[in-house]
Amino acid sequence: VQELQDGDVERRIGFCERMMALIDVQPMFPYQIVFTGEATFTLTGEVNNQNFRFWSDENPNWVQETHTQYPQKINVWCGII
Hints:
The chain is an alpha+beta fold and 81 residues long. It is built from one helix and three strands. GO terms for molecular function: nucleic acid binding.
């Protein structure tokens, strides 16, 4: 979760207006968008995800790295058309 900043509302409205203008010109435009995400999960509970951000007033120290000779992890990828 990210903190909203001054000017965010105007940028969001501008983005929506541009998208609506694109849809007016090319109605199939939304069907050509591909949303993707990727994350790496480990047995230590650590998640490496480039699209996810944590926000807090203080450092929660929720991840503790541990090193093993053969770290076990799994990569997960998802795509939505």
